[in-house]
Specification:
This protein has a single domain, classed as Jelly Rolls. It starts with 12 loop residues before the first helix and ends with a strand. By secondary structure, it is α+β, with helices and mostly antiparallel strands. Bound molecules: 2,5-dihydroxybenzoic acid. The site of 2,5-dihydroxybenzoic acid (GTQ) has 9 residues, from strand 3 and strand 10.
């Protein structure tokens, strides 16, 4: 059934243009010239696939260490800006990413904000972050969360630089114009629980008696790499591999089974050497960080080559195919839970 069409109005294009100009002075515009760009038949991100080479970024980060202290900078971070979103501090249209450096003896002062943060520890031992009154020692590969409005400060008690990847939902918070920020009265927050307390309460497949979640975020702040690596390894040995994802797991809030924070999901996956994943698309643009291994990924029409600690972006709805040349572990994060909560998330296999 086709719609009955009304006869076309014969009118000169210049007459229409003159009308559009008059509309403009009333802060109004015709929808019909904008509709196709406004409501697209499928996701059309304004940002592009990109990859940041870790050796290059590390050298720049160390250079920044000679220019400013963590304390003066508040956070000494090199923001990873999508090449098509320069000046916006966005790696995708909804997420922020950066590489943060803390040198031995330094402190990044305590503060809190509406934006939620996640960290993937990249290198160095002796670093810590304190979240909500408890200190967490960082080890390479650990996944750490800083839920919305929790005080957090970072420090380095060791003898080597500590570097991690930050992921924040700042563009989402700003899109909703819901940003708040507050400094803590002192440089470091009061520690009210011994280290490991949250892990004992929530991280041992046990829960406190009659526990009801008090927030939308996980009460567990650190997901140690040793445990997630072991899980990936065992599942690889048990098989089978998923054709699109290899062995892939999502980090979970142990009290709800949901994502660790309401706006961002994080994943870890093992891809054995020589594996070639099948094409996969999803609406959540995803930031990857290579924990171990080497390979390349075809992202739409482009191919990015990656090695240890490189960061790369797969835009929303871009078709992705991973081809590790060595046994590889990829960490990734996206805004999937926010999309799911709004009924918007979609995926396509093959
Ligand atoms: O560690 O609190 O990369 O507040 C950007 C903003 C890190 C942090 C960032 C932040 C932080």
């Amino acid at each position: 059934m086709s719609h009955p069409t009304s006869p076309e109005i014969q009118v000169q294009e210049s007459v229409r243009r003159e009308f559009y100009q008059r509309l403009d002075s009333y802060s109004a515009a015709p929808l019909w010239t904008a509709l196709a760009k406004l409501v697209t038949s499928e996701p059309r991100p304004d940002y592009v696939p990109a990859c940041w080479n870790y050796a290059q970024m590390r050298a720049l980060l160390m250079e920044s260490g000679d220019l400013i202290t963590a304390s003066e900078a508040e956070r000494r971070v090199l923001v990873l800006e999508n090449p098509n979103l320069r000046g916006l501090s966005q790696i995708t249209q909804s997420l922020y990413a950066g590489l943060q450096l803390i040198l031995p003896g330094e402190i990044a002062p305590s503060h809190r904000h509406a934006a939620a943060a996640l960290r993937l520890v990249i290198e160095g031992n002796g670093g810590y972050t304190a979240v909500d009154g408890e200190r967490i020692t960082m080890h390479p590969g650990d996944f750490i969360i800083t839920p919305s409005w929790t005080f957090h400060d970072h420090g380095n008690l060791g003898s080597e630089p500590v570097i991690w990847l930050d992921g924040l939902d700042v563009p989402i918070v700003n899109m909703f114009t819901t940003s708040f920020f507050e400094g803590y009265p002192q440089e470091t927050q009061a520690i009210v629980r011994p280290e490991g307390d949250a892990a004992a309460r929530f991280g041992a497949t046990l829960l406190p008696l009659e526990y009801t979640p008090q927030s939308a975020s996980s009460p567990l702040f650190v997901y140690p790499y040793s445990r997630s690596r072991e899980a990936l390894d065992q599942l690889y040995r048990n098989g089978p591999l998923d054709a699109h994802h290899g062995i892939k797991l999502q980090y979970a809030n142990p009290a709800t089974g949901g994502s660790p924070m309401p706006t961002m999901a994080a994943f870890t996956q093992f891809l054995p050497a020589g594996f070639k994943s099948e094409n996969y698309q999803s609406t959540d643009g995803t930031i990857y960080c290579v924990v171990e291994g080497r390979g390349c990924s075809r992202i739409g029409e482009e191919t990015v080559e990656w090695g240890p600690h490189d960061v790369f972006v797969v835009p929303a709805w871009a078709s992705v195919q991973h081809q590790p040349s060595e046994d590889s572990v990829l960490f990734s994060f996206s805004d999937r839970p926010a999309q799911k909560a709004l009924g918007l998330w979609r995926e396509k296999r093959g």
